[in-house]
Design a protein that fits this description.
Helix content is 35%, strand content 17%. It is built from three helices and three strands. Helix 1 (51-60) crosses helix 2 (66-79). The protein is elongated, with a radius of gyration of 33 Å. The chain binds L-tyrosinamide.
């Protein structure tokens, strides 16, 4: 090597070496995931909607077996209200809207609502 001064002496890789401690606050952000709130979808009794219509709706929209659908329908018929299922907000909202739409198409007064579980 020549006698010129080597300006990179001791720091060829550019990494922090012995210039004292690196300072700062070590930070790590924690992403908090929340479980979604759940909602009960409720069916109301009325005097006009046919039992068979309610049973078919419970099979089609709420994926109940025939036996479960009959049991839920009879429970609503006898007690005035019953739970069709428990879902996340968006799914519950969609089910309520589907029931309202089908009931309206058939001109039945069937009412369906949702409440926080
Ligand atoms: N009460 C209705 C009838 O006697 C049947 C019915 C059941 C209606 C459940 C609505 O959510 C309901 N035809």
């Amino acid at each position: 090597m020549s006698d010129k001064k080597d300006i990179f002496a001791g720091d060829r890789d550019g990494r922090d070496e012995d210039d004292g401690p690196q300072t700062g606050v070590a930070q790590k952000t924690r992403t908090r995931t929340k479980r979604p709130s759940m909602y009960r979808v409720l069916l109301m009794n009325d005097d006009y909607t046919p039992m068979e219509f309610v049973v078919e709706l419970l099979e089609q929209i709420f994926h109940k077996s025939r036996e479960e659908a009959v049991a839920v329908m009879l429970n609503v018929h006898q007690s005035g209200v019953g739970v069709c299922g428990v879902y996340s907000f968006e799914i519950a909202e969609t089910k309520v809207a589907q029931v309202a739409s089908i009931a309206r198409q058939h001109e039945h007064p069937l009412q369906c609502t949702m409440e926080k579980a």
